[in-house]
Write a structure and sequence with these properties.
Distance between the termini: 53 Å
CATH topology of the largest domain: Enolase-like, domain 1
Strand content: 15-25%
Order of helices and strands: EEEHHHHEHEHEHEH
């Protein structure tokens, strides 16, 4: 089984563009990568970074082709692509992740098994949650998503805050807390402070963090991911 072709695709939509933030040119973007083998199997993967900088996907994929064409996906996923100071993290690795996903998709198709059965070495059951509740969603939309999460068999629901005024987000959080409690689901909140500018900080916004953590299973990204000092002090306050 040898790789014959690697392609990348960028798609954009003007859907809800007025309410979209942080994305390239105000559009909703998605970047997909396909990997095809000489025997006809094809896998597909997504790179999250394509939401924000889809224009950078193609040049990295072109570079990766030189490393991967003619090689066996089953061997590549074990060793990965190694380029000193480039492939360990950052933009390159994020884009490579889509190729990695596509190769695992091929492996699952070849073995005719669901991918989770190939990757998982345990029979333990794990709790799963539904991730939704976008920053612009209203209470009616939150309720609809929570009900869907319950019907799908999830044990929790995660929503986003941070874009709207605090009073509005607090009201949304209270509503979601009561709704998830009714359906016996855990509620998680993502403050997306790696996206919001300016982000919250411990000195000005601790009351928000304190209020949210009273009602949630976990609070994600209350400060910018690089704000190590505030995270350190937050742990002491807890």
């Amino acid at each position: 089984m040898k790789i014959a072709e690697i392609k990348s695709y960028n798609f954009s939509s003007i859907f809800a563009a007025k309410n979209t933030f942080g994305n390239s040119k105000g559009l909703k973007n998605i970047s997909l990568v396909t990997v095809k083998t000489k025997c006809g199997l094809e896998g597909i993967g997504e790179t999250y970074i394509g939401i924000y900088v889809p224009e950078l996907i193609l040049p990295v994929i072109k570079e990766l082709r030189d490393f991967l064409l003619g090689k066996n996906p089953e061997e590549i996923v074990k060793k990965k692509v190694h380029i000193p100071f480039v492939s360990r993290s950052g933009l390159f690795k994020n884009i490579y992740s889509a190729v990695d996903i596509a190769m695992w998709d091929i492996i699952a198709k070849k073995r005719k098994k669901p991918l989770y059965k190939i990757l998982s070495k345990t029979t333990n059951k794990y709790k799963i949650y539904s991730s939704g509740g976008l920053v612009n969603s209203n209470k009616s939309e939150l309720k609809e998503e929570i009900i869907r999460a319950k019907k799908s068999g999830h044990q929790g629901f995660k929503m986003r805050v941070g874009k709207k005024k605090w009073e509005v987000d607090l009201s949304r959080d209270d509503f979601a807390h009561n709704c998830t409690k009714k359906f016996k689901l855990n509620l998680m909140v993502d403050s997306i402070m790696g996206t919001i500018n300016p982000p919250w900080n411990l000195k000005k916004d601790f009351y928000k963090v304190k209020n949210l953590t009273k009602k949630v299973y976990w609070l994600e990204e209350p400060f910018h991911p690089d704000n190590y000092e505030d995270y350190k002090e937050l742990v002491k306050k807890k």
